[in-house]
């Protein structure tokens, strides 16, 4: 006969004394480490912490509460990692990498530690911003940009001439220090910045609010200061900030202190006392110029409106996009497409062209008949309409080398135009024109 064994309740143990000892050792060790002015005092503090770790380990072994035990283990792991870092720091003290005041005067030692900490912090921030430096040229020439002659002229004045002809800029004729490009989305503001990066002989920093805004209090201001310091050290240099309105919006009553400090630091770095900004150009781009803080707006000496492309620019964009694609379009057809795309932005035209050049591929997919044509001395299959003579086939039955893709034609663009839509409304254009009359200039 099986007799059930009685359930044994876990034995509880009072760890109050151990808890008190652990807290006391950690508190004493931290105090000696933080205030100690000599290596020996820091060693004494570290020894107290090590004793606390041993006591804490013993406490974990004796603890029966699962949740409490898990919490203590997390505390032990964190303390252990912190202690390992302190051991490494202690080794630097002993090797002389960090100067110690052996007389016991902690003030001098704290200054040395502060300087070392500032140096390490600056190095970390510089490394964080190193990705913002454009090392490979984007290969965008001024000739690749359709229209926008006033904008290109202003950028060449600010970017190219001061570098190539520095003697011209003396006295009152100083180079521009801040240029703001604003306008509807997709009109070529970033493309102009890429042209600057290609043509300029110097360091080009391309940053956004994500590179400069940190969740830690005070770090955003340090990142902005480090960015401008790096630009001054590596001048001539250009700092391009895309969507600057997300970082430097208008200050108001509902704005938090962190955002105010970011804007203030940016203002000081752009045009503050004691800063040599010669050879540093700040280039900003935004779709919402009216959202900028008034002081930021003043720092940008030139405010250039980048409007929607005119009919000549649209024709050039379509032709330029198709320069490496086989097409049967005539000059008259290009002109007609430029007229039909009234109100389209540069980005809209790019999407339209991409949609149109897909039409020959769609013809391949839907074709049920093919015929052979000579291409560079070889016979290849090309799709034909159902009412034309041809061999019943599908393009999946053919290999890539046996297919001749039809050239892009005018009808392909007409089909794409039926599906494409403009991305900028007339109301938006009215807001930009009103702001331009008050604060900006035409690009």
Automatic annotation (TrEMBL):
GO terms for molecular function: ATP binding; ATP hydrolysis activity. PROSITE patterns: AAA. SMART domains: AAA (SM00382). It is found in: Endosome membrane. The keyword Nucleotidyltransferase does not apply. It is a peripheral membrane protein. GO terms for biological process: endosomal transport; ubiquitin-dependent protein catabolic process via the multivesicular body sorting pathway; ubiquitin-independent protein catabolic process via the multivesicular body sorting pathway; vacuole organization. The keyword GTP-binding does not apply. InterPro entries: AAA+_ATPase, AAA_lid_3, ATPase_AAA_core, ATPase_AAA_CS, MT-severing_AAA_ATPase, P-loop_NTPase, Spast_Vps4_C. Its main location: membrane. This is AAA+ ATPase domain-containing protein. It comes from Paramecium tetraurelia.
